[in-house]
Amino acid sequence: MSKLLQRLFGRLPIGWLQLTHKRGRFAAALAGVAFANVLVFVQLGIMNAMASATLRPYAFFDADIMISAGDANALNEGGNVARQWMLQALADPDVIDGTGLFVGTAPWDRGERDVSFSTIGIDPSRFDFLSDGLSPDLDLLQVKDTAILDRLARGLPRDETASIRPQTPLRFETQDRTITAVATFAGGGGFGGDGYMLVSDQTFLAMFPARRSSAPDHILLRLRPGADLDATLRRLRAQISDHSLRIRSLSDAGAEDLRYQQTRRPTGIIFGFGVLIGVLVGLVIVYQVLSADVADHLREYATFKAMGYGPRFFMGIVVEEALVLGLLGFVPGLIAGTAILTLMGKMTTLPLAMTPSMAGMVFVGTVLFSALSGIFATRRLTAADPADLF
Amino acid sequence: MTSEPVVHMQGLNHWFGSDDARKQALFDINLSLPRGSFTVLMGPSGSGKTTVLTLIGCLRAVQEGSVQLLGHELNGASPAQLTALRQRLGFIFQAHNLHESLTALQNVMMGAQVRAGVPDALARRAAARALELVGLSDRVEYLPANLSGGQKQRVAVARALVGNPALVLADEPTAALDKDSAADVVDLLKRLGAERDTTTLLVTHDNRILDRADRVLTLEDGRIVSGND
What we know:
Chain A is an alpha+beta fold and 390 residues long. Chain A folds into 2 domains: 2-54 and 266-389, no CATH class; 70-244, no CATH class. Chain A has 12 helices and 9 strands. In chain A, a hairpin with a 2-residue loop joins strand 5 (170-174) and strand 6 (177-185). In chain A, helix 2 crosses helix 11, helix 3 crosses helix 8 (250-263) and helix 3 packs antiparallel against helix 9 (266-296). Chain B is an alpha/beta fold and 229 residues long. Chain B has helices at residues 49-56, 79-86, 104-112, 120-133, 149-161, 179-196; strands at residues 7-16, 23-33, 38-42, 64-69, 72-73, 89-92, 167-171, 199-203, 215-220, 223-226. Chain B has a 6-stranded mixed beta sheet with strand order 6-7-8-3-9-10, with helices on both faces. Chain B has a 4-stranded antiparallel beta sheet with strand order 2-1-4-5, covered by helices on one side. Chain B is globular. The mean pLDDT of chain B is 88. Classes of the chains: A alpha+beta (390), B alpha/beta (229). Chain A binds chain B through residues 6, 10-12, 14, 17-18, 20-21, 297, 299-300, 302-304, 306-310, 386-387, 389-390, and chain B through 50, 53-54, 57, 59-60, 80, 83-89, 91, 93-95, 97-102, 106, 109-111, 113-115, 120, 159, 171.
């Protein structure tokens, strides 16, 4: 390491020698950098998980356009949309198909805790609006009070969901009804609920008696192949006279939902701040270590200054130290961060994982912010006045 | 000694503090150090001898008067010029001021590499040779913590001399040493200086050193009171 640095800098790697001279302090400094890395990794992991958990239900649907109420910031929020607007939209030459979509939250009281299902209700004759591969058993939902359950739902033991088949269904109480789970699909817990449940629109309306079939929560539209999505959206916005409605592509609906979760919901804001705090903690730790190190070596630096070394030499030492701390602190940070994210993912069933892009981003950030701390710390070098040595 | 002196100081005045607290530390100092000479500057503490040393060593800005160092006027020189000139000097301090994280060899290399463009291998050889000259070839890879006080000061001497400086400035180099080590260090400075035609200015109030000097200057209350030509 020392040899490598020596070749790299074309001088003795004084920063490295200085750092490794006090092993205890060096280890503590690396642990500090690693800790800051773990903080950032966990927060970023949660933010990533929030993004994929928020976007996942939008992937359940096979549609081009989603019409929602003006206050429907998320799938399970806000008011409903009158079915008449769907009929008007279908009058557009490029809109070939449409259906209403119901979304409601149904808790299953399992004694020690409720498992809350984001329940999605859709007309069984319009199951073509559900993505291929979501479940091969959608037809079974034509029977009233049947459901397809999310086998990845948080709080549902895997062995309990594994045995759910049409021949061996699972019955449970929710919304004052007995629902029969006849099959399962892979959803996954999100931030709005523990998991998902697919039902027919009739089952949904029975579960949620206050809802009306004339007013679904969202309307899904499909366009003629080759139709211009943006142009159709513009036409629909002009034709539909209720201007409070949000008429947007399905992917935009997901993106707006995510933006809402990240910037206006407390959870998103908290995790955003978490990243900021992780960065600040790292910055302060590296700055503290480096400025203490500069203060400890003022006498040596003053000596070097007297010998004729210039300001760039000292800057080089401090930045060298910052880079060593950043690079070497990142490795244990990455290992610990991966372990913690994996563990948290197992516990929450949130899609928490270390991704290469996250690791790359944090690595670049660590090196950059370490160098920045180093540059701050060099300001203390001016205190090294060789005239004081005599 | 016909050649131009290494240091030529004329009409030098120096003050510390500002405004009302301003106090004159040096009064009309005239002083010349011929090439190859070994000069001892004596005087009680507070007499201004260290100030003279730091002014010659380009560590303080000259306020009034003229200091010619190696043919360069220091009065009005820029910080970069002063830094460049310092690279041609050798400093020895009261404390050894070795870097605790560097081995004896690496400490001496720092003296060899201060001028840009000195290759690593060359600096290493020069440093090893300098340590040999001060009798420490068997301590090359030692950290300062594992050397005795006299050995550390000898490493400091090697660091000061490794770049073949034109002028060595030593400030009380023997103050922290016992009698034998002190004599060793001064003899070393004297002998190596003579071999290389190096000019030496040594500040001390250690009387044991006086008999080794070519010339002894005495400073009192900011004025040279004896020894000047």
